Amino acid sequence: MNAARLLHTASILENGKVLVIGGAGTDNTLNSVELYDPTTGSWTSTGNMSVARYYHTTSTLGNRQVLVTGGFNGTTPFNNAELYDPTTGSWTTTRSMKVARQSHTASILGNGKVLVTGGYGTSSALNSVELYDPTTGSWTSTGNMSVARYDHTASILVNGQVLVTGGSTDNSIFNSSELYDPTTGNWIITGSMNVARSYHTASILENGKVLVTGGYGDISILNSTELYDPTTGSWTAAGNMNVARYYHTASILGNGTVLVTGGNNGFQMIYPGQFVGYFTLNSTELY
């Protein structure tokens, strides 16, 4: 890449290129954006965001634009949202979220709207949820989660519901899970995970089950994994990873296996432009 960055996002565009957005640099927060071209293996710069940010979300909309929401600039979270147009390489601001948030999730629903859940606000964890409508560029509030949480996951199930798992609040880590029903705008409590975790991953398998891997637990970094069955609302333990990790990624491959890569197995928090006693991993494994 043209710039060193962490805590950024990456989105695959319709033309196959990968759009990498923002993040924390070596000594500053970034508003720079780059495109990776798989056919040439090269990186090119594209239009900068109006706001430098990390801990944000990105969502590729039905109109091919990429929506960026919230995030952190090293000082404060914010509610700013903006749109990237791949045809022009430029950004336009859209209406801001109702609540400033970082470390939240964003999920594209079947109706094309974007569901933003939780995160960390200006002073505490959030249970608030809002919907972005790409046709109007507006935000509306919807049902609150039962628990305020950040660094959680959100997965769209086959039935269209959104499964939110784990995460943190101001002084604890959760094993709780809940389901958002887009038809009612309400949340339903479902089975809790066997282990409390944040900074984990959640992947929807071909059989419709959700695989959760690793993360940061109450007192340690986790190598445990578990499966959620939407038909029963229950969790079962799956095989442990070889390496305990959080801040990792999980990708579903064409053959249905799940590739887990990298992450961290140190205990200290990450600050913008600085790691404190970290142990970054280059190991990968397959489920």
TrEMBL record:
<dbReference type="Pfam" id="PF24681">
    <property type="entry name" value="Kelch_KLHDC2_KLHL20_DRC7"/>
</dbReference>
<keyword id="KW-0677">Repeat</keyword>
<dbReference type="Pfam" id="PF01344">
    <property type="entry name" value="Kelch_1"/>
</dbReference>
<protein>
    <submittedName>
        <fullName>Uncharacterized protein</fullName>
    </submittedName>
</protein>
<dbReference type="InterPro" id="IPR011043">
    <property type="entry name" value="Gal_Oxase/kelch_b-propeller"/>
</dbReference>
<dbReference type="InterPro" id="IPR037293">
    <property type="entry name" value="Gal_Oxidase_central_sf"/>
</dbReference>
<keyword id="KW-0880">Kelch repeat</keyword>
<dbReference type="InterPro" id="IPR006652">
    <property type="entry name" value="Kelch_1"/>
</dbReference>
<dbReference type="InterPro" id="IPR015915">
    <property type="entry name" value="Kelch-typ_b-propeller"/>
</dbReference>
